[in-house]
Amino acid sequence: MLTSYAAHFDTPAGYLDFARFGPPSRDAVAATARAMTEAAHAGHTTVDDLMRAEETAREAAARLAGTDAEHTVLLPNASTGLFHAALGVRQGVVLVPRGDFPANHYPWRRTAGLGRATPRWLEPGPGEGVTAELVRGALTDDVVAVSVSAVDFRTGFRADLAALREAIGPGRLLVVDAIQAFGVAEMVWEAADVVVAGGQKWLRAGWATGFATLSDRALGMLEPVLTGWTGVRDVGVFDGAEHPPALSAQRWSITNLSPVTAAAFAAALDLVERHTVRAIEAAVAERIDELTEVIRRHRGRVLSPADPARRAGILSFSMPEHDPSHVAKALHAEGVALTVREDSLRLSPHASTPPEASERLAAALRALPGRRS
Predict the structure, then answer these.
(1) Given pLDDT bands bounded at 50, 70 and 90, which one contains residue 369?
(2) DSSP strand pairing (117-122 vs 92-97)
(3) Average pLDDT, rounded, for the chain
């Protein structure tokens, strides 16, 4: 456990569901409360003062992504960024893994119906993820982009972004949904042309927070279809004319975001920066190793990659001869929160997760019928 980081949170010891939702820090809660209090006592400078949180959050997200504020825009969620990217591809084929989270499916399905980008589905093998070899084998002249998750939501498989970049070459776009990785996994974000992430999971900023980064290649190739009044040049000039899109990533802005959620996002990103992604990732990996040992000791089947270099903070498993719902009931009795699927269970600890979580997992698995203590 990263003690200095954990001191900012009140999350129960058995909470192992950060891949679904990351309970925010006291810092993020306090930032939200301060912003709302200031809004309630509004004066002639209040709105402008509150709006500065967006700049702070955008700059922090840019630093963590290895870029700058001109190439970064705040968004209310990852899906908004993926729709921006999908609608921006004028024509051609986009490679998308069939087993990816639906947020990376629907934007491309919608554009196909509009006569723009058409998805072609990649088919990773069982227990595998999107690799450079898989992508390279699917490339044809009409492929203009590849859209993948940095970390697979089911198994925690970590994509090799640098290898994917090399495989597709300089003339195609690499779009990355980073929601299951950003802030807890060191990755080569600069290899991607578009990086989108929501802040409600591993970044622990709460809902309605997120961002996107766009490379120079993306700014040049993607049409800004969804540009709103806050995404244009001369944004403060209301002259009744249509203004051209901003030259920066701000062209993906549709309207003003909530300065309250921006304040929470800024506070959450500050925690990550101060404690570093490297330290957070190491603490998560330590918990994953402990949980993995408990599962194997109780004859469970680990479904996530065994190689630590190929996985992030997600640990999926099953217990042979036990329905996942029955295993989940035993885990809930021990105060363990997790994601339950029809064929598996998913644990996702964070850097604030204490060793006690493994003890709770062990107690639950021992309690299963037919298990020896």
Answers:
(1) confident
(2) parallel
(3) 96
Burial of 351 (C-beta count, 10 Å sphere; 0-12/13-18/19+): buried
Residue ranges of E strands in 199-295? 210-214
pLDDT in tens, 49-99: 999 999 999 999 999 999 999 999 999 999 999 999 999 999 999 999 999
| Nearest alpha carbon to residue 129 among 318, 280, 345, 312 | 312
Closest among 183, 114, 200, 111 to 147, alpha carbons compared: 111
Among 304, 322, 324, 331, CA closest to 129: 304
Read off the pLDDT of residues 278-318 as tens digits, 9 standing for 90 and up.
999 999 999 999 999 999 999 999 999 988 889 999 999 99
- As given in the structure block, the two tokens for residue 4 are 């200095």
pLDDT of residue 373: 44
Q: What is the pLDDT of residue 371?
A: 55
Residue pointed to by tokens 């004066």: 43
pTM of the model: 0.96
Helix axes 26-40, 259-275, angle to 10 degrees: 150
- Name the residue among 8, 115, 55 with its Cα closest to residue 266: 55
213-250 pLDDT per residue, tens: 999 999 999 999 999 999 999 999 999 999 999 999 99
> Within a 10 A sphere around the Cβ of 243, how many other Cβ atoms?
15
Cα dihedral 121, 125, 130, 134 in deg (nearest 10): -80
Q: What is the CA 65 to chain-centroid distance, rounded?
A: 12
Position 109: which residue type? R
Structure tokens at 289: 């190793």
- The residues that bridge with 337 in the sheet, in sequence order, are 15
Contact assessment for residue 246 and residue 67, using Cβ atoms and an 8 Å cutoff? no
DSSP 258: P
Q: Which string of DSSP letters, residue by residue, matches 321-357?
A: TS-HHHHHHHHHHTT-B-EE-SS-EEEB--TT--THH
- Residue 210 sits at φ, ψ, to 5 deg, of 170, 180
Structural contact between residues 356 and 362, judged by C-beta atoms closer than 8 angstroms: no
